[in-house]
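Render this sequence as a predicted structure.
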Amino acid sequence: MRGIEAALKVLGNNDNKGAFASEALRKLADREKMKGPDISLASSLIYIVMRRRELWKKIAGSFLHSKEKLPAQVYTAITMGAGGLMELRRFSEGVLINGIVETLKRSKENQKYISLVNAVLRKIKEGGHEMIDAMKKSPTLDDRALIAGVPVFFISAWVRSWNRAEINEIFEMFSLPSYSSLRTEEPEKLLKLLEENNIRAFKSDMSQALRLNESVLPVNVPGFSDGLCSVQSESSIITASLVRKFYSGRGLILDMCSGRGVKAGQILQECQSARLECWELSEKRSASAEKELERLKVKDRAVLKIGDALVIEPNETPNFIMLDAPCSGSGTWNRKPEAKWRLDWKKFDAIVATQKKLLERAVNLCAPGGNILYITCSLLRQENENVIAEILTAHPECAEISGMINFKGAAFKKGRPYGFYIMPCNAWLDGFYCSLIIKR
């Protein structure tokens, strides 16, 4: 199956059936025995569309003057073509248009729209860049959101979190590419191994991180299967490293929402005498976490439990709790663009309510004198400072440890007034928020 056909099929499923694009492409590629170049093209087209879907729909609508309602596949093909024509590099525009047209010809239902699609895509090719340039110069937040790939309906959440200059700066950050970084305990060994496999990497400002100039699948990284490295954003590495910094060395560490165990693995490697209990609601993610801890050879110091973190009981009272809370993911929208298109106000309000309940539970579970590290990959105050403020007001026995971060540089921004943000100001950083609470 060719890359254009595969991308169109996956995007159609994503729009109509709620499937996650990355998972859908992986299954399709395996089933159709797709080759590397076709998988790469399909992946690029899918990412381009998902990152700025509303922008491509606006551009398509500007050049599409037909009043007839188009079949879903035809409309998806036009929006995919708009994104590909504007962003694909090292790929002929004419080949892309012809590939889309040829794919649509295979369906009888689409035959009558072939000329329309061809004409619209060629108009976009000629005038699309000019339209984007005008939007980049526009003073309106709607246009800036479209360029940044931020859902327009969600602008009010950003306005309540940041001033206009800060919003413009964050939206500019969202235009940066996202590349992979590797966490390793042996950077020199890993650098040599990557060089031997013709993978270019270089050292980060962080001693345990290497940077790549591409995004990679973990299983394709030399040394990954042997536990030599983990594919992990530098923001994730920074937040998990705070456990090592503030863990007293005694008592249980509780990871309340462990996900696939990436941070758990880091904690156990960095805190070599620590015992960790991991809670996860999803059986699949918990199974992935178990494999991750086995890969890093630290599973013997971990206990994994599947269930709701609001009701599970720990084996003993934890002295340190890490709550990597479920969130909107707004700080990672550039790297994982699908999440934002699944969001609405009802879901967002439910997420915030869950965050408050989880942090309340963490405070009640934590031993006196212990610490709670609250983390989100969101840049929105509603999920961050507001949650911390409500919990601290309800629990006078708790206080935030201020000044806990000594990092310098543009990546870090103090919360107002609680916690701190890691800003997505380069290709290896995602937007994160952290606050450390002590229970006196």
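Summary. The longest strand covers residues 432-439. The mean pLDDT is 93.
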